[in-house]
Amino acid sequence: MLHFSRDFSFENTAAHQNMMDDAFASISEEYKSGEVGYYNLPHDSHALLDEVQELIQGNILLNSGQIKDIAVIGIGGSSLGIKAVNSLMLSKNLNTRRLHFFENSDPIDISRTMAKLRKENTLFIVISKSGSTIETTSIFKTIISYFDLELESVDSQRVIVITDKGSSLSLFAKHYGVKQFNISDNVGGRFSVLSAVGIVPLTLAGYDTKTLLDSAEGFLTRFFNHEEDHILEKACHFYEHSPMQSINVLFAYANDLENLCKWYVQLWGESLGKINTQEKNVGLTPIGLIGSIDQHSFLQLLIEGPKDKTVTFVSIEDFENDLSIPDVTLKHIEKTNFVNSNSFNTLINAQCDATRESLIQSGVSVDSIVFQRICEGNIGTMIIYYELLTSLVGAMLHVNTYDQPGVELGKDILYKKFGK
Amino acid sequence: MLHFSRDFSFENTAAHQNMMDDAFASISEEYKSGEVGYYNLPHDSHALLDEVQELIQGNILLNSGQIKDIAVIGIGGSSLGIKAVNSLMLSKNLNTRRLHFFENSDPIDISRTMAKLRKENTLFIVISKSGSTIETTSIFKTIISYFDLELESVDSQRVIVITDKGSSLSLFAKHYGVKQFNISDNVGGRFSVLSAVGIVPLTLAGYDTKTLLDSAEGFLTRFFNHEEDHILEKACHFYEHSPMQSINVLFAYANDLENLCKWYVQLWGESLGKINTQEKNVGLTPIGLIGSIDQHSFLQLLIEGPKDKTVTFVSIEDFENDLSIPDVTLKHIEKTNFVNSNSFNTLINAQCDATRESLIQSGVSVDSIVFQRICEGNIGTMIIYYELLTSLVGAMLHVNTYDQPGVELGKDILYKKFGK
């Protein structure tokens, strides 16, 4: 269960209702027309679960239990969602196989991650929609060389590819007899975590991806049945306040939520930051914070700075960890004894509540999302919730939520730098 | 060497000159009057180096080489700066002792970090200016209980305290015979990395903190001799554009720069987000990004979204790592072969340059800071540079750069929740 609540006021005026109706109609049309593919993933990706089991049966390295580590080579939408789920679930599971990530063209980071792996225990998953992502192909070639992978022979089973049908990477896989999973053309990278991009590595790592998908599917169905209209109201509120509150903060109270924040930052920033149909530069700026740490960093700005931000608190009701502050008294530092014998679970959530109340008193627009506990089902709900919210705000802003034309210029300049 | 350059235009008008003169005079006065203490740290903290050596000589656990791990228990200004330096230097050094951080009231994180440590190899450093930070005292008590620390006897040498003179934590240390280092009253937490807060743990971990301080001192001296006036111009530009460009992005091209970005976020956000002397809510919003990763996330918003951001690129000229993209051709993915045989060092910096140029072409205000290489000296320069820049912008905004009154409300509410 995820519990959604809001502390900002929202009036159900006729103008608001029109705006919500239009956005709802717009994304319903995206769904029904098949123009935008992510809506189908919670249902359709169930087929991948069998396909992954077949892969495990048929792949000698996986089937024999040799593979202990999975190296994911991908960047942006090809890593952020996987990392978000993995970070949250890692402490819950005795994983079958452990995930590692190669996502940056940073030589120190690549060297460090390669040094952690041993070829005989590792499966390499190369993920790129287009198949020509410069970081991904460059790192893949470096890995081939470093681990001496013989793709023409034994090591073709040590590599898996996830890419668009017909992409250069897909053709590569066919050529070398490497197993591939495909992403639909109409699923954008940042909306792809419930496609093969996320489901294949997460299933191989031992997570309950069936429940992840079931839960997302349930929420999506309820949304399109108008049983989750609070999303419409939140989208409307965010859109309407966007001229003044152009920054949307996710304030998440747990270290392991940091990668979920990064996934959100990509989804929100890259989807909504656009030149819209009226040729205006629009967009909302996402920021991820971690509590209680950032109470000692960013909170001052939220409270006393310009009122240009909304804040969404994310917290975990039950950490399933009973670590408590012992009933110890230390001479001269008795002042904080009032939390003695409480669990850290209680403390961190009280800090979240106190911070939320202090923001409300300071006139900041606040809402909250509470994970009853961390599990695949609740993460699945969170993912589809944010994807739907993004699509709705995108419709209200009159942008193309699903493209990213602005990044091409930098790529062109890079190509020229290398004499292309 | 750090190389500073700017791509935004700046005219040296009389109005600008006045603004810069006033801010310079204002912070010179802070320095000379002794009202603000961080200006003295690069010089004064040299005395700590001897004090730490004496500690090592006199402490049987340190002197015998038993201590392999140092657990830092602190939050906000008591951890961010240490983490920033440690992350950058970790891959350079064969550390004498390894740093670990307890900074959040997150039970999963605390349990995980405790499980990594063994009592006999660990020194615990408790850092809190006030001595009554709820996370810090609660975690400290938990550690005492978990590791069965006997402060009354043998384990008093296993703990070090860093706190304000006369604080509750200082009295605690005196009572139990625990070694303490003090922070001056007039040094705020977020400006404290060059005080005992940073220098003691970093020196114990084996970093060259003398060079860190020397370099910061040199830069500070040059600044007050008007040999680094580019900071004045940047402060003036940021201040003047703050009504429209209220978000200042640090786009850092290396994974290990992430904690430096977090240090910057606290410094900038908490110092400048204030109710100013004219009772206005002012402030600039800091955001840290990592390249090339965030080219696949945030860049679209920078290019096509509202023009409400400045971007400062941070890059490393020489990673001192020669990992190269091998000259491998893979069937069907030849398109990215143009980078073959180049180092990742070359690739990531070309990506940084290309992204910078694409932002300039899109009308974004851009400047750059290049680390010739990562070393203590360059990090020291970067720290004092950003502290001076923050003070200057604070003077221009007419705020108290050094307090954080906004966070008290949440603390009061928290106390009440526990019946205080």
From TrEMBL, chains A, B:
Coiled-coil region list: none
What Enzyme Commission number(s) apply to this enzyme? 5.3.1.9
List the Pfam families hit by this protein, alphabetically: PGI (PF00342)
Q: Which UniProt keywords apply?
A: Gluconeogenesis, Glycolysis, Isomerase
Recorded GO terms, molecular function?
carbohydrate derivative binding; glucose-6-phosphate isomerase activity; monosaccharide binding
- Kindly state which reaction or reactions the protein catalyses: alpha-D-glucose 6-phosphate = beta-D-fructose 6-phosphate
Q: Which InterPro entries match?
A: G6P_Isomerase, Phosphoglucose_isomerase_CS, SIS_dom_sf, SIS_PGI_1, SIS_PGI_2
* Protein's name in the database: Glucose-6-phosphate isomerase
The species is Sulfurimonas aquatica
Give the similarity note: Belongs to the GPI family.
Q: Which GO terms describe its cellular component?
A: cytosol
Record flagged with keyword Transmembrane: no
Kindly list the biological process annotations in GO that this record carries. Answer: gluconeogenesis; glucose 6-phosphate metabolic process; glycolytic process
The pathway is: Carbohydrate degradation; glycolysis; D-glyceraldehyde 3-phosphate and glycerone phosphate from D-glucose: step 2/4
